[in-house]
Design goal:
single chain; about 80 residues; alpha/beta; Rossmann fold; 3-stranded parallel sheet; 2 helices; 3 strands
């Protein structure tokens, strides 16, 4: 079993440091991170992480919204 971590910030000016430190303290063996807005469904590092997860592995995030994608409704 591997404990994976995923960290994301929405803008270039934001720092990943707090999320990375939290994931390390939580015992993540492998952490992938990226700077990409929640409006963008394209998240290459998240896709890389999810593609490597095996049965029994754990994926951790510091907040569930790091995984969310914002979609604006038309009208």
């Amino acid at each position: 079993m591997t404990v994976h971590g995923y960290a994301r910030v929405s803008t270039i000016g934001q720092s990943l440091d707090c999320q990375l430190a939290t994931l390390k303290v939580a015992g993540c063996e492998r952490i992938l991170a990226e700077k990409v807005t929640g409006k963008n469904a394209q998240r290459p590092r998240l896709q890389q992480l999810l593609g490597s997860v095996m049965p029994g592995d754990v994926v951790m995030v510091t907040k569930l919204d790091r995984l969310a994608t914002f979609r604006r409704k038309n009208g």
